[in-house]
Write a structure and sequence with these properties.
Length: 330
Amino acid sequence: MDSTFRRTPNIHLQDLINGLLQGNRIFLSRAITLVESKRADDKVASAELVDKILNTERKTLRIGITGVPGVGKSTFIESFGKMLTEKGKKVAVLSIDPSSNRSKGSILGDKTRMDELSKDPNAFIRPSASGSSLGGVASSTRESILLCEAAGFDVIIIETVGVGQSETIVKDMVDYFLLLMLAGGGDELQGIKRGIMEMADHILINKADNDNLKAAKHAKDDYWNAVHLFPPNDADWVVPVGLCSALEKNGIEEVWSEIENYQSHTAKNGWFEENRKRQAIKWFHERIHARLEEIFYSKPMIKEEIKKREELISSQKLSVRKAVEELFNS
Ligand SMILES: Nc1nc2c(ncn2[C@@H]2O[C@H](COP(=O)(O)OP(=O)(O)OP(=O)(O)O)[C@@H](O)[C@H]2O)c(=O)[nH]1
Ligand SMILES: [Mg+2]
């Protein structure tokens, strides 16, 4: 983002919006940088931008992909994304990485593992925003999804590493949530909690190739049995359990046909729209909470006032209730 843009956001904002709506990827990148910015003037411009591009009549699809590090998420997105662009779809890939400062993080990995997709004129790949709280990253990713959709992308894929709370956060911003698993090793070994399996709309055992194929087939049966003990999900959708080899591009078409089944199933029973509405309302409330917190902690002297009361509370000279009242009334 150049400095002229920052200094005169209003004049240039309209150019940015026009460029974005025409599907210009450079403008899309710049718009995403703007919504990720923490500068006060950029926040004002971002609010204006996201409000102006709010869409629309176009049908889009948001897919979340999770799984432990190394399960093959990026490789899958490369194969799956190419298949979609070959079908004439425009595909955007965003990522949420709660540990993006780890040395083998997605950013470097995605560059090498999505080689073909990154050269595809109908694809747009954006590595994760880093350096802020997961909540902040999540919010800017939601806005980035809207920007990609405004720029004409039909399918938005969000990759997240299956550790921490990022799965829940991604589940809340997508229409379809795909969990990649590996054969061999129980759930505990893979660090995948039952809760994440319950969130999934699709369980896919990756690396079902070569020597691994037999074990993958066994794993498929095991997961199928496990999944069918879960209570029915909100979408009233029977979660498919499938096999694929992202590397050899096997089983990729089948994933897309299940997603199409899901789309028509949830269009019929109303869940697709209902889910998007609920997600937006939840996001709204999350932002209110975040904003309140921000306002509270930015009060002058608040850190000192809190510190003072911590001492009084720990020596039992002040009750927690009174301390909180004082801080809000100061
Ligand atoms: N045999 C086989 N190897 C695969 C397959 N998919 C991915 N791999 C390999 O597994 C390794 C990890 O793949 P990635 O796609 O980077 O995995 P990831 O889940 O994106 O990893 P992080 O982003 O680091 O969490 C790479 O060496 C891939 O070549 C597959 O279907 N079969
Ligand atoms: Mg990856």
